[in-house]
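Lab notebook, bench 4. We co-purified these components, and the gel suggests they stay together. Before we commit to crystallization screens, I want a quick structural picture of the whole thing.
Request: model the full complex, all chains together.
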Amino acid sequence: MSSQSVLVIGGGIAGIQASIDLANMGLQVYLVERTPSIGGRMAQLDKTFPTNDCSMCILAPKMIECAGHDNVHLLTYSEVDEVRGEAGDFQVTVRGKPRYVDLAKCTGCGECAEKCPRRVPDEFNMGLDKRKAIYMPFPQAVPRKMTVDAGNCLYFAKGRCRVCEETCQAGAIDFEQQEEVLELEVGAIVIATGFDPYDPAALKEYGYGEIENAITGLEYERLICASGPTEGHLGRPSDGRVPQMIAFIQCVGSRDVNYKAYCSSVCCMHATKEAILANEHYPDLKSFIFYTDMRAVGKQFQEYIIRAKEQYHASYIRSRPGKITVDEQSGNPIVWYDETVFSEAGDSVRRVASKEVELVILCQALVPRGVHREIAEKLGLEMDESGFLAVRDRLECPVDTSVPGIFACGFCQSPQDIPDSVVQASAAAARVAELLRPNSRRPGDA
Amino acid sequence: MPRTRVGVFVCHCGNNIGGVVRVPEVVEDARNLPNVVYVEDSLYACSEEGLSSIKEQIAKQNLSRVVVASCTPRTHEPLFKDACEEAGLNRYLFEFVNIREHCSWVHRHDPARATEKAKELVRMGVAKARYLEPQEEFESEVFPAALVVGGGVAGMTAALSLANQGIQVYVVEREEQLGGLVREVRTLFPTEQDTGELLGPLIEQVRSHPQITVYLGSEVENIEGFIGDFDVAVATDGQVRELKMGTVIVATGAQELKPLGMYGYSGLPNVVTQLEFEKSFKRGADLPPNVVMINCVGARVPERTYCGRLCCSTAIKNAIWLKEQDPDAKVSVLHRDVMACGVDIEEFYRGAMELGIRFLRYDVQNPPEVLGDRRAEGVKVHHQLMGKQIILPADLVVLTTPLVPREDSERLSKMMKVPVGTEGFFLEAHLKLRPIEFSTDGIYVCGSARYPSSIPESVSQAYAAAAKAAIPIRDGSVRVEAITVFCDERTCSACGNCVEVCPFGAVELQEGRFGRIASVNVMQCRGCGCCVAACRSGAMQQRGFDDRQLLSMIGALADEVVSVGGR
Amino acid sequence: MEDSETGGNGFEPKILIFACNWCSYAGADLAGVSRLQMPANCRVIRVMCSARVRPEFVITALSKGLDGVVVLGCHPGDCHYSEGNYFTRRRGLFLKKLVEYVGIEPERFQVRWVSASEGAKFSDTVAEVTRQVKALGPNRPRPKA
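Here is the predicted assembly.
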C-alpha cells in the first residue's frame, strides 16, 4: 500500500537515521542513494567533534542496522527520476544505474579491483589518490559490493580488458547489465541530500589551486585519517614533509556577501578538531586558527576549544586574512591579515601582519549538494536564496518543506552538525508517522 | 538426553579462503572433533546453494549445533541464524568462526600456518558450540501510553506529535498553565512575531486533542520500572495518581540565569536580564535612548564553561526591537563572539548591524564595567580595535545570560535514574548519534532540559523524541537479543558487586527462594558481561558467552600445546 | 607487516586474544579487509565487551601453557557499554601483578586499546606482542591438560 511506504532520498547519516526510525515504525522505506554506498560525508571524516569518536566506528553499526532492517529497501547507485502525485499518494520513478556487477553473486572480496589496470582519482579521498575503475568506495561500504565506473572503464571506452570478469570466481561481473527503472508508490518523501564543499578557487586571494600547500578542510580530513590515502601521515602536497606550523582560515566563502552570505555552522569546530588531531599525531605541531567569531555553541563545544588551546598548541587569531602568498623557495604559504585586537591605542593606520606557516587549510563554505537542485525542481520544492530547501515554518514545523508530504532533514535544509541532523531525521520520521499513521510492524496486526 | 550433534560447514569464499587455507585439511581435522557428526565445505556458504545445503543437512543429520567457518560474523551472522531457524534449529545454537578476515586475508604468505590456525579456530568454535543452549528472545509488552514531563513548547510539540500518531499521551506540567519559559518571552527570533502567535494555537491544540490528558499544577513524584512498563506517581489536585506508561519524554526545560552580583545586577535598578527587559518594556512604552547589552554574562567563564547557544540571538532580537521602536536609540551589544550560526540568524545579525546597532567585542580577561552608584549611567569597555577604554552612556544595561538547568533537575535525574552532564543538563546516550535518547531505554529528552535550545531546535528535538517514544508503543512489545545475563540463585551470595558495576542499572538485589539474590532485568540488560566478570561466586552467567563456553575455547586452543621442547 | 620468523629453535608462540565485539573485533576485521599481513600466532575469542574477561580466563590460559594472552577493548571513553573498558583497565593492572606473582613473566599478559577503525593498530599490536612473547621463549611447560 502506497500509504505505508516512504521514499528517503540521500543515504548519509540523516537519511540513514530517518530510514531506521521509519522502518522501526513499520513503514516500508525505499532509501535511494546516488553513490554505490550509503554513509555520506560522515564516512569521510576521521573523528567527530567534540567527542573525537572515530567517525566510521559510530557510523558503521548504523549503516549495517539500516541496510539489514527488514523494512528498508536499499537502492544504491540510483537516482530519483520523476515524482508525481501528492501527500499520501506519490508515484516515483527511480533509475538504478547499472553497476555491471551482480549484487547477488558479488562477495565484495576485491580481487577484481586488484587486477583492474585503470586508475582514476578517488572521489572519496577528495582526489588525493586513485582508485580503480571497478571499486568499492571505502572498505566499510554498505552494500559491500563492487561497482564498475562505466565512464572510466577500459571495456566501455575501448572494448577491451574485462580482467575483472576473468578474475571473479563468483562470476559476478555482468557487462550486459541494464539500468533498472523502478516505479514506486509512496505516501511521503524525506529528503536528506546533505552538502558539498564550496570550491575555494573562487577566492583568488587565497590562491587555492595555485599555492600547492593550500588545501581544503575535507582534503585535510582525508590526509589525517588513519584509513585515508596517506594512512594519517600529514605530508604536505609540495614536498611530503610534515608541517610544524599550520594555519586554518575560517569562513572561506562563508559570511561573505560576495560568495555565501550565511554561516556554515560547523567549520569553527571542524578546524578546532583538525588542530587537535594534527597535534595528536605530531606533538610539536602548532596550529593558528584565523577566525571571525568562534562559533562553538553546542554541548561540550566550549570545553573542546579550551582543550585545544591548553593542550594541543592551538592559537586563535581574530582576523579574516586578506591574502595568502607563497615563498617560492620553501613552498611555505604566508598569511597576510589585519590585527583586530589591540591592547593599547596604535596609530590610526591599521596594522597589517603576516604569518609564515608550512600548510594552510581553507575551511571552505559548505553548500547544499548540487544535485539537490534537480530534485527540488522535480518535486516542486521551494529553495531559499542560498539553495537550501525552504521550510514551511521554521519555528513550528522545521522539517516540513513547502510541499505537503515532503520533508527535509539535515544540511540540505540548513547548515548543521551531526547531532542536529540526526534529530531532524527523527523529527521527519515523526512528521511522516503523523501523516501516514503506520500500523504495527508485526504482520497480521490491525 | 540426546547427544549433541555438531555440523561444521567450511567455506572457501571463492579463493579468498581456499586460496590460502587448505580447506580439505580443515575439513578432515574437524571430522575428528568430539560431537562432530558432519562436515562439509562449500564455495560460498552464504550463497543460496550454501544456505540450502546447511538447512538440508540440519534435517538429514539431525544436527543440534551448527558451526560455519567463513568470514566475519559482523556481516552474515543473521543470515546463517535465519537459515538455522528455517530448518527448525534454535538460532542460538549456531556459532560463527572467522577464517577469512582473521586468517586467510592476513596470512597470505604462510598458507601452512594459516591452515593450522584455521583448524584451531574451528576447534575453538566447535568447543563453544557444544555448550551453546537454545534461547528464546525475551519479549515484554509495552503499555500503550506515553508520558511527557513538562508542558512548554518542547513538551507540547512532542505530545501533539504523539497524539497525532494515534497514541495516548499524558502531559504533566508544574505551573498552572502550559507554555513554559516561552511565556516570559515577548517576541521570537528571527521572525519577530509575538510569542502569543506561536503559543496560543499550540496550547489550544494540546488542550483540545482527544488523545492528550493534561495535568496542570502537577508534578511527577516517582517513576519506577522499565521500557514498556513504567509506574508513574503524579501529584495532582491534592492527591497522587498512579499511572502506567510505556515510554517517557523529559521536556522540563531550563531557566534564565539571574546574574546576582555581576555587573551591578540586583543592586542597580536599571540593570536587567534579557527576559526582564522583555517583560518590562512593551511596545509604545517609554524606551531608554541609550542601551548597552553585555553578552556572555555568567557563560563561557570558569564557573560555567558552556555557551548559552541562543542568547546572542536573543540579544540581537531585542536590540533590533529597540531600534524598530525608536530608530534614534543608541544600542550597543558587547560580546565575546557573536554566535549567529546558520542562514536565518546570520542574516538577522547582518540586519541588526545595518540598523546601526553597534557590536563591540570584549575579552574575558578584560570585561566591561558598569559605572554608576545608585543607577547605571554608563559602561566602560576596552575597545579592541581602537586599543583603548571607552565609556558608553547607558540608561539601561541589559545582561545576556545563558539558560541554566532547573533546580529540580537533580531530583528528576535520580528519580528516573538518568544522568546529568558536567553542566547540569540531562546527559544523552551519545552526544553525536543519540542526542535525544538516554542510555536507559524508553526515556527520551528534548528541548532546553538537554541543553539550551532555540525554538526550532526544541521543536525538532520534540518531534524526534515523539518518533522514538512512539516506536515501542506502536510495536506493542520490545524484544531483547538473548545475550543477556542471568543469576543462578543457588550460588549467589548477594555481595552486590554486579549491582554496582552494571552500567545500565539492570541488576537489583531482591528476595529469592534462598535469601537475597541478584536479579537481572532482562529488558534493561545490554549483554556486556561486566557483572559476570565481577561475580565472586560464578552465579552470574551470560547467555551465549558463559564461562563454560569461553573456557572450553581456551581449552581447545591450549590442547595443542606440547609440554616440553620445540614445536 | 612482517611474516612470522622462525628463530633458531623454531619456537612459535601461541597467543590468545580476547577482542570486544564493537571496537577491537571490528578493528581486526578491518585489518583483514585491508589485507594487512601479520604473524599467524594469535587466535581471537570474541566477547561483547572486554569487561567480560574474568581473571580466571587469563590464568587458565597461561597455566595451560598458552604463551600469551591479550585483552583488547575500545579506547577509554569510547566503550559501547560506557564503562566496561574502565573495569578492564583496572582488572588489567591487578592481573599483571597476579601473573607475576605466580611466576609467569608479566609481559605475557597485556591489555591494549584498538578501535574499529584501527586496522593498522590491530596488526601492529599482533606483530609487537608476537615479537615480545617470542623473545620470552615458551611459557613454562606444564603437563598436557
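Chain A has three domains: 2-97+179-194+369-436, 111-167, 199-365. Worth comparing against the SEC data before the next meeting. The longest helix of chain A spans residues 418-436.
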